[in-house]
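HUMAN: Mind sharing a backbone?

ASSISTANT:
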Amino acid sequence: MVRAKKKWGQHWLASQRLADQLTQLVGVSPGDYAVEIGPGTGLLTGALLEHGANVIAIEVDPERAVQLREDFAGRALTVVNDDVLEAALTWPEDPVHLVGNLPYNMSGPILRWTAAHRDRITSAHFMLQQEVADRIAAPEGNRVYGALSVQIQWQFDVEIVKRLSPGAFRPPPKVRSAFLRLMPRRCPAPTATASRLVQDGFAQRRKTLCRALAGAGWERTMVESALAAVDARPDARAEALSPAAWAEFAAYLDNAR
């Protein structure tokens, strides 16, 4: 019997039927490349291979890596036994589908890693804690819309394509999960200034942007001019600006500085 290891936050898909459904949602075609993060017991790996994908599976657990190589010997599978954030990955020339049932405590770093490799991927489909997925996909004005929403939606079109109960996994986690689709947007990556601006803007979300950003060291008159340039109210709060408006707001301040 395969036992999950707590140190890696392992919660594996419970059925092949579910793995097949998720593969359909990913939309791989024969000959496509898929990079799978955390293949675990290989249910999703097998489904991707059955759909004709060439799979590069990144698995941190050495026991699981050995078993995957044995289970899929002779198939179009390359197993990389490493942490995805440290792996020396050889990317295919063609863009890849990125797929993963992510450890919940690693979702933030892996999302940032995904954004850093945005130009290499066709799509990303991640299983995440539902609360995190809802924050990423939230529209402006929503109570959970925040810095993470803006930073991901700047770079990806975002959609929750399936929600799952704890019983969909073995062992069952204590939270519900969601399968999130990220489609890369062909636009410049946010600058360091833009990223800091968003973090500062949402750090005190009850305050107006002018007050919150002035308190974080941004010049108030410059912030007021930037808000006017994006047609935002002078008393607007951070959650009132859409990701597109945040991008314009940040670009104005970047140029002004």
Summary: Residues 141 and 240 are 5 Å apart (CA to CA). Residues 243-256 form the longest helix (14 residues). The radius of gyration is 20 Å.
